[in-house]
Amino acid sequence: MIIDWTPLADLIETRDRFLVTTHVRPDGDALGSEVGMAGLLRQKGKDVRVVNVSHTPPRYDFLDPDGSLFEHFGTAVHPADLADREVALILDLSAWSQLGDMAEYVRSFPGPRVVIDHHLSQDDLGALFIKDTAAEATGILVMSAVAALGAALTREVATGLLTAIAMDTGWFRHTNTRPGTLRAVAELIEAGADIAAIYRDLFERNTLGRLRLMGETLSGLQTDMGGRVAYATISRADLERTGAIPQDSEDMVDFTVSLRGVEVGMLFIEQARGGVKVSLRSRNGLDCAQLAATLGGGGHRAAAGATLPGEMAENVDRVLRAVRQALDPATVAAQG
Ligand code: AMP
Ligand code: MN
Ligand code: MN
User: Is the CB of 291 within 6 Å of ligand 1?
Assistant: First the structure.
């Protein structure tokens, strides 16, 4: 899709102080896209603050080597500190729920809001949406902005964007990986992104806690519907016992769909503040975004999520019922 970047160019032309933010529990696409967007804006002489509602997982600290880019909303930064911001750029999300404790602040942001995103699901965020649901990552969109606005792919920007694209394509394995994806990556490597170093930073700096949590999560893998569905749970006690931190569960849902014959995989994670986060993945075309929407969440066709109130057991039950229904409506109806 050819994106018209004129509205963003106009804002850059007329405003100076930008706020960049992204979703709760940020992933590589969220943080890498912020690095790219901050680089673009700074090249244009803009004053940029990147303020996120979640702390940066240690896995992504290489994106902000001196710790000066990502700021934390609620502890280090409060709304009053952002009173001078003229434009809010919101990356890699289209749902209020994905802004967590920053939603209220964004709702009352007085200046223009711009959402740059690739998710299917969409709330009315009162924003200008620059959206391509066919894009493999928000990072691809930011890369197109860098080119359209005549900015340079510095090494730093290229590193952020390669991380963004790599993580949202499952390191170039998922069906959203296309020839254009790899062409973009080639360009980022030419611009100075060190793909081997990025891989090591992302995948070869596990903590013992994360590896132990992985082991426990695999041990507890359950199947349903004769093996068409697989799921696992992570409780607060699991985190404590293994010495893992909440962010360590990133990607672990991938194990569920790695089992032969599995069409739908789920990972349920008990949240510190109550409720359960569920990640959904499909390998048979089932629309996870639609399924997640019925649970109050959203996402993409093959990958979506939702945060549910209540206890683990009741939520596993509830989501399993919804998945069975989606996979096999006739049988489920016959069984009552
Ligand atoms: P996750 O399972 O958290 O890895 O999320 C898979 C995809 O669904 C990501 O693109 C998320 O941004 C999206 N997603 C997860 N939870 C939600 C939610 N509550 N609302 C909207 N989108 C979500
Ligand atoms: Mn994301
Ligand atoms: Mn994304």
Answer: no
